């Protein structure tokens, strides 16, 4: 009986504000994981800019490219500065933005029992960056390529299959954006054809915005283009209450980057009271991405228990615990599972 010990190499980018605080908490918990990790700390953000003149030095990008996964805290982006995280997503070609919408007992969600994911195309659409002034105003180009539609839809169906999900919903506005979203919708159904075990359906984005607050329980996996995904993801965040709780993944064919949805929260930075949940859940997503499904589920279970008990939670959840006290509690339970 030979057991192989695998060592994952992680890049850790703590960033600014509460980024380093929630990162410290998450890594502290990871210490008791049954999986071996080595990690390299890399820098990005405004503090990094002050020291090095760059919000994302080349070293950070190359370290991240070489590693098995990257954990990202949060960065402060000063207006006019190049955004480090956007540069990194581009460099690593992280074309998927994945946002789970899940309600955890003991947290201020609007609906009980929600559990779906939004898969957002993250490289083109209306955020292609092609914008110009015209005589009378300005125009932005909405880029939709078959290649990008295909890979994002494939990702959504593969994700559904791997995670025992039953349905994928495409969200678009093909009645108005006939060409761009026409291609998105057609490609979606072409891909759907290869996944007969999973149901497929499509909705207009306006209807979807409504269904998200009238029947959010009906969603399972949602796939959509960049702008719609951006807006619907935040609507999803609103459904399950609280920035401190929401993780995200940015995934490409070679790399994965995992980060909380919240920013650097300068208003509470340095006080040791940031909720570490979003960062911990981002780490759960990373573990799953690495194939360590059991470990991911164990960690999520430990956090779920701490949230449900509600005794050792941070002030945003109505508690009095510090970031590290809450992390300690999660760690103890995680270790015992
Ligand atoms: P940035 O420009 O870096 O995004 P921001 O001022 O927009 O910073 P966010 O991080 O987006 O701040 O947070 C918005 C609000 O939510 C702030 O009031 C912040 O304190 C709160 N918040 C964000 N993350 C957390 C967290 N992990 N725990 C508790 N409160 C949080
Ligand atoms: Mg913000």
Automatic annotation (TrEMBL):
Instruction: Give GO terms: molecular function aspect only.
Output: 3-isopropylmalate dehydrogenase activity; isocitrate dehydrogenase (NAD+) activity; magnesium ion binding; NAD binding
Name it: 3-isopropylmalate dehydrogenase
Query: Which residue spans adopt a coiled-coil conformation according to this UniProt entry?
Result: none
Q: Name one GO biological process term.
A: L-leucine biosynthetic process
* Xref: Pfam families: Iso_dh
EC category: oxidoreductase
**Record flagged with keyword Metal-binding:** yes
Q: Where is the Isopropylmalate dehydrogenase-like domain?
A: 9-330
State its cofactor: Mg(2+)
Q: Which UniProt keywords apply?
A: Magnesium, Metal-binding, NAD, Oxidoreductase
EC nos: 1.1.1.85
What family is this protein classified in? Belongs to the isocitrate and isopropylmalate dehydrogenases family.
**InterPro entries found in the cross-reference section:** IsoCit/isopropylmalate_DH_CS, IsoPropMal-DH-like_dom, LEU3_arc
Which gene specifies this protein's sequence?
A: leuB1
Q: Which Gene3D superfamilies match?
A: Isopropylmalate Dehydrogenase
What organism, scientifically named, is this protein from? Answer: Methanobacterium congolense
